[in-house]
């Protein structure tokens, strides 16, 4: 481990990561199963995305189902049966109204605690972490369950070979508790940003008040996810690179001192370009995209859980979390990895 100082953190209570869990729906869809339907090939998918399979929900399941499973595992990892708040990052809520988090909380036996959704697309989990840390800093809660969950299979155009192979469904969660800034697991300063001028690069055009209030009926594919891939690639690398530099600086670290980079698993080529821009050895970048695809808000916590279970993420590692998604939105934070087991 290269080691990194904890200078730059402000005195006072910190949000400390103390529990971690992830869950994937059992159904696996391999590249071979997509080939005939999408007029593509396994080689085309793997060389452009790094993905060979993904998990998808089955009838009777939803984003809420995924969130409950991951949340229960994070609570078990933290050896807790209650928390003071629940924050759910998702772009695929169970219903447009109400938020999904209150029902998730109730199903976890946490009825009565504040519970709400965060919508920042694939950057949502880092935004939810920042929100959970804020709840702890203000004394609103002593501990917070933060979940990232998405079921993007419900948004994909079944005939679009550019988006169809990329996304998978899943959920990951962490428990944050009140602690000290110099503790292992204490979250460092956050860097968050958006650029709404480019909001149409990643979108679902129909279903919201803009389309419904326009008086123009939605087109046959307007309810599906759409993305302008080339521009998204460029901005993802640019924004996450800048955000990592800012978060590392706020922690008093150097980029060279990063032991593990836990970046949103959007595309293997984006991950390679990001580590190259940061001048980090690629082996320091954690990855599970080949097995799960892009799971949107679930991406970062699922990556952390997989990496702990595989042994590639260990206590004492200096870790940077970074993500990028629609909005456009991006965010990063730092922590010294604590001793814990993922469930």
Structure description:
With 343 residues, this protein is of the alpha/beta class. It has one domain: 3-Layer(aba) Sandwich (Peroxisomal Thiolase, Chain A, domain 1). It has ten helices and 13 strands. It has a five-stranded mixed β-sheet, with helices on both faces. Helix 3 packs across helix 4 (101-107) and helix 7 (229-251) crosses helix 8 (268-278). The chain is globular. It starts with 13 loop residues before the first strand and ends in a 7-residue tail after the last strand. The model is unreliable at 1-10 (pLDDT under 50). Belongs to the thiolase-like superfamily. FabH family. Pathway: Lipid metabolism; fatty acid biosynthesis. Residues 250-337 form the Beta-ketoacyl-[acyl-carrier-protein] synthase III C-terminal domain. Its EC number is 2.3.1.180.
General form: globular
CATH architecture: 3-Layer(aba) Sandwich
- Low-confidence runs of at least 5 consecutive residues: 1-10
**N/C terminus separation:** 25 Å
DSSP strand count: 13
Q: Beta fraction of the residues?
A: 15-25%
Full CATH superfamily name: Thiolase/Chalcone synthase
- Please tally the helical runs, counting DSSP H or I stretches of 4 or more residues: 10
Largest sheet strand order: 1-7-6-4-5
What would the CATH topology be? Peroxisomal Thiolase, Chain A, domain 1
Describe the main β-sheet briefly.
Answer: 5 strands, mixed
Quick structural overview:
With 343 residues, the chain is of the alpha/beta class.
């Amino acid at each position: 481990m290269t080691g990194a100082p904890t200078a730059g953190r402000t005195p006072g209570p910190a949000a400390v990561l103390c529990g971690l869990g992830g869950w994937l729906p059992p159904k696996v869809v391999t590249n071979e199963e997509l080939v005939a339907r999408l007029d593509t090939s396994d080689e085309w998918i793997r060389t452009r995305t790094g993905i060979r399979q993904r998990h998808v929900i089955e009838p009777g399941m939803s984003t809420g189902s995924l969130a409950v499973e991951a949340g229960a595992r994070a609570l078990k990892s933290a050896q807790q049966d209650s928390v003071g708040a629940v924050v759910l990052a998702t772009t695929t809520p169970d219903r447009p109204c109400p938020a999904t988090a209150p029902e998730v909380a109730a199903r976890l036996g946490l009825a009565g605690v504040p519970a709400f959704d965060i919508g920042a697309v694939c950057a949502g989990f880092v935004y939810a972490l920042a929100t959970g840390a804020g709840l702890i800093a203000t004394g609103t809660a002593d501990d917070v369950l933060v979940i990232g969950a998405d079921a993007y299979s419900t948004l994909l155009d079944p005939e679009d070979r550019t988006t169809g192979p990329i996304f998978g469904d899943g959920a990951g969660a962490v428990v944050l508790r009140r602690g000290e800034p110099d503790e292992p697991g204490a979250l460092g300063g956050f860097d968050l940003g958006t650029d709404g001028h480019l909001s149409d690069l990643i979108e679902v055009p129909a279903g919201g008040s803009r389309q419904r209030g326009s008086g123009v009926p939605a087109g046959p594919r307007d309810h599906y996810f759409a993305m302008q891939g080339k521009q998204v690639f460029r901005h993802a690398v640019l924004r996450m690179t800048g955000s990592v530099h800012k978060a590392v600086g706020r922690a008093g670290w150097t980029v060279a001192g990063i032991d593990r980079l836990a970046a949103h698993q959007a595309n293997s080529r984006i991950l390679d370009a990001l580590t190259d821009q940061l001048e980090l050895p690629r082996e320091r970048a954690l990855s599970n995209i080949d097995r799960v695809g892009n799971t949107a808000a679930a991406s970062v916590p699922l990556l952390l859980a997989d990496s702990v279970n595989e042994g590639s993420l260990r206590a004492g590692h200096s870790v940077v979390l970074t993500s990028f998604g629609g909005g456009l939105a991006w965010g990063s934070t730092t922590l010294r990895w604590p001793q814990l087991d993922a469930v």
